[in-house]
Amino acid sequence: MNKPTPDLQLLGALALELAPGSGAERTSLAQADAGTLAQRMAQDLSGFADEANALQLVTVGAHYDVVELLRPGWPLHRELDQLAARAPGDAGGRVIAFGGHEDKLPGALTPQDEYAGGPLRLVPFVLGGDADIAARVGDLFEHDLMERGMAGAATALLAQDAFGLKVEHARYMTLHDLAAMMAMQYEHAGLAPLWPILEAALLAPDAEEWLDADPEPVVHYIDREARIAMFTPQAWRERYAPQAAHTTEGQCEKLERAFEFFQARQRQFAAVLEAHGIPVTFVYCDANQDAHAEL
Question: Which domain of life is it from (predicted)?
Answer without folding.
Answer: Bacteria
